[in-house]
Amino acid sequence: MKPSVVFLFYHGLSHVICILKIARILKDAGYEVYFAGAEFFHQYISSHGFKFKKLKSVPFGLGFESWVRTIEKEKHVYWAALKDRLTDRLYSERDVEVYWMLEEVQPSYIFIDSRQATDFILLFRHLKDRKIKVAMMNAMLPAAVSPD
């Protein structure tokens, strides 16, 4: 069984594009490479030959509560978002989804986009028990590798 790598990427195309080269290098080195994120990117990432794990949740602690409630067509966005903050709704949803992603993929390595560094908080308790190595990536750095 090949060791697997998961890229937890921020939901912006520029963030995905910047890590494709690194993902390709890992795939060519024999790793099974997964991208985990919003369904919107599934086709694009799959077209590059990588596996995709859809995550319906969004990273917590980044102020997405109002956006989520707007997408859900909530009538009283402000109050619903406030309730979500008080009850840690986004944290709880993300925690469950990340757990099941770990169960399914069983990664050896996880690369987290630094824009959603709060995912590390969810992963921390699993890393030692599962012997998963983790790295934060700044996806805005050039991902091209030169021979020099």
Layout of strands and helices, then pairs:
Layout (H helix, E strand, L loop, with lengths): L3 E5 L4 H16 L3 E6 L4 H6 L3 E4 L10 H7 L5 H11 L1 H17 L3 E5 L5 H12 L2 E5 L11
Parallel strand pairs: 1-2, 1-4, 2-3, 4-5
Helix pairs in contact: 3-4, 5-6
Kindly describe this structure.
The chain has 148 residues and is an alpha/beta fold. The chain has a domain at 4-60 and 97-137: Rossmann fold. It is 47% helix and 17% strand. It has six helices and five strands. It has helices spanning 13-28, 42-47, 65-71, 77-87, 89-105, 119-130; strands spanning 4-8, 32-37, 51-54, 109-113, 133-137. The chain has a five-stranded parallel β-sheet, sandwiched between helices. α2 (42-47) links the parallel β2 (32-37) and β3 (51-54).
Q: Quick gist of this model?
A:
Helix content is 47%, strand content 17%. With 148 residues, it is an alpha/beta fold. The radius of gyration is 16 Å and the shape is globular.
Instruction: Give the overall shape.
Output: globular
CATH architecture call of the domain at 4-60 and 97-137:
3-Layer(aba) Sandwich
| CA-CA gap between termini | 33 Å
Alpha-carbon Rg, integer: 16 Å
* Arrangement of strands in the largest sheet: 3-2-1-4-5
Number of H- or I-type helical stretches:
6
CATH class of the domain at 4-60 and 97-137: Alpha Beta
Q: What is the structural class? A: alpha/beta
Features of this protein?
five-stranded parallel sheet, Rossmann fold, 148 residues, 5 strands, alpha/beta
